Model the fold of this input.
Amino acid sequence: MKYDILVVGSGPGGYVAAIRAAQLGKRVGLVERAEAGGVCLNWGCIPTKALLKSAQIYAHCKAAEQYGVEIAAEVRPALDKMVARSRGVAETMNKGVLFLLKKNNIDLITGFGRLTAPGHVDVDGTDYEADHIVLATGARPREMPFMPVDGKRVITSREALTLNELPETMIVVGSGAIGSEFACFYATLGVKVTVIEYLPRMMPLEDEEVSKTMERAFRKLRATVLTSTTVKGVKIAGDRCEVEIEGKKGPETLTADVVLSAVGVQANIEGIGLEELGIAVERGKVAVDEYYRTNVAGVYAIGDIVKGPALAHAASAEAVCCVEAICGLNPAPVDYANIPSCIFTTPEVASVGMTEQEAAEKGMAVKIGRFPFTASGKATAAGDRDGFVKLLFDADDKLVGAHMVGANVTEMLAEPTLARTLGATAEAIVRTVHAHPTLNEGVAEAAEAALGHAIHL
Done:
């Protein structure tokens, strides 16, 4: 069987690449060893958000009296039902991807794909030929030698999605998006959670003000956050885990029912034929150019296996760019400086562009506008006043960074992302009429503050 384009891996990079190629008239095959939609749809982004929604509903029910609602019975979290709902949501999205593949006449080839020669991929003993091969094999949770995963007491995000019962205590190692989201979920349900972060602050890739706000938010959840703390070792002792750490207080040993390892992801590049074809690898990632071409003609790589943020929407953007370049459309390269980032904790975190610290490191003078949600009528009415909007503008008043904390701020992020793409100024944002009352007014208010004529502060 020969294809114009053969894609290996069906995550947000792979299935988007396959569909875009089919839209452009190519004969396309898509290789997948597990569920269509990859980790994101089945074991990552989507089921995690389903669990977080369940936790949010539980928290709202506990706070019902604040909204004038009386609940007669005791409100309790039913983890088994939450997990079942989460798996159902993932299954629905999986079926959606299968429908799209069928609609676009894409052949779904089940099995493990491995490059064997230029233009050839072996899938469990069957050879497939293609003019162009796009590798989109994704990533898996990174395992550290000092924290061996057994899947029961020391777990990864995958096991955290399907626990049978709530532990009394949990230690989460790593405070990036994955660690923070699971810590928020379990802490909301009443688990005593401790988050351990090696770097000096929580969510270290975010703006410093965001990190400080989220540390306060986690304290409200009665979760402990230990920053500047190193995990020296984890061992299982009976039905408990012992975690040796060294932090601000010196060496300590913590115990917990469960330890969640959330220390990042590792690219799935083993055993897929890179060595056989001499495809260059740099620092554990496939080396590619701006159109995702490897050093071997006809072979491309996108998503978590190439340099860049390990984000689903980044992989999708790379997929479109890669395939359109293959088809001769001359697309603009992906602008990695303008890739948005979201963390679905309570409150949520959303950001795009430069942080204040990055601007300072580059010697860039920036104007900063802030708007706290305590001044927002919509936030006050909703009872979610924690957080803020923070915008950074350069010397030409163009938006260079946006950082937000608050309820539903991930849904607000598209406006500043588009503003950065278009080179919008603070004045342009202010002159864009924002509906009232909305949380999104905070973007215009922050821009007004940067210009020095804030109205509501």
About this structure: The longest strand covers residues 126-135. The domain at 154-263 is CATH 3.50.50.60 (FAD/NAD(P)-binding domain). The CA atoms of residues 265 and 360 lie 29 Å apart. The two ends are 66 Å apart (CA to CA).
